[in-house]
Amino acid sequence: MKKIPVVIVSGFLGSGKTSFLQIMIEQCIENKLKPGVVLNELSEENVEDHLFSGNPLYEILGGCICCTLKSSLKQVFEELLTKQAHTPIDILFIEGTGVANPLELKNVVIRDEFKKYFEFHSLVTLVDASDFLDFKSILWTSKNERELMRQQIISADLICVNKTDLVKQVKLDKVIAKLNEDVQSSAIIHKTTHAAIPLSTILRLKTDKGNENEIKHPVHHSGIKAVQLKGIKNIERQTFIDWFNNQPDLLRAKGIITFKEDKQFYSFQYAANQLAISPVRFNREPIIVLIGNGTKIEDLKEDFIEKVDRRKLVN
């Protein structure tokens, strides 16, 4: 059996990992390659599964692979192998949560029990050019978070500096200079908008196969948690938008919502102080996922209920 190459997709919350995966899948299909995807989410539900319909998708929900759910990733590998004879894949992409340490994911891939079937191909880390310098600042992040981001960068074979359309050239130059302090000498830095990068660039990456010993003591994230809000329907659009204008403790948010103005379904994404709302062509139970510091997450939830929903919600 030919080994399945594994590409690990890393990057802090909201850096564009899911957009990158969508582009990779489209290009794989165009090149007659069959991709498989493993998605890890901090929340109990994946509110973006509609983006991967029609492709082999394995979900690991309710926590981080690198901390408490390593056994779940092993189970996914075992399930994938049992299906390989009937629904084979040519390449596997693993997207960790935004606070996952990619070195932990690599540790699972290179375990002796899986080396016969999987081959670690490369590690791609996405960086949001619009807020990278803030996250590197001691004023905005903890030491642990800064070290986690550093390990996401230093372990990468390719660094995708994303959202370059949101920054001026002077700031982008500062981002690249800061990245160069941590990147491997062999790593490639690629500037992108909307995480658009050729599949051929990924396939050409050459990881040092001689350096496949298990990494000891990788840094973990420090208490970043997710909370779900369900039962929210037909809220005021402007009230919803205004709530996101001043939320310093909110790192990331996403979900499916309806507004009372038109009762239509919308997908929304919030990252780096940017809120994007897009109509969707399906109906599903509205759900909102908020991600932030574990000590503040319940306060964020209560504030949202009070100011936006103002009803008793079903958890």
TrEMBL record:
Keywords: Chaperone, Hydrolase, Nucleotide-binding. It comes from the Bacteria. Gene3D superfamilies: CobW-like, C-terminal domain (3.30.1220.10), P-loop containing nucleotide triphosphate hydrolases (3.40.50.300). GO terms for molecular function: hydrolase activity; nucleotide binding. The keyword GTP-binding does not apply. The keyword Hydrolase applies. Residues 5-187 form the CobW/HypB/UreG nucleotide-binding domain. Residues 232-304 form the CobW C-terminal domain. InterPro entries: CobW-likC_sf (IPR036627), CobW-like_C (IPR011629), CobW/HypB/UreG_nucleotide-bd (IPR003495), P-loop_NTPase (IPR027417), Zinc-reg_GTPase_activator (IPR051316). Pfam families: cobW, CobW_C. It catalyses: GTP + H2O = GDP + phosphate + H(+). Belongs to the SIMIBI class G3E GTPase family. ZNG1 subfamily. This is G3E family GTPase. It comes from Cytobacillus oceanisediminis.
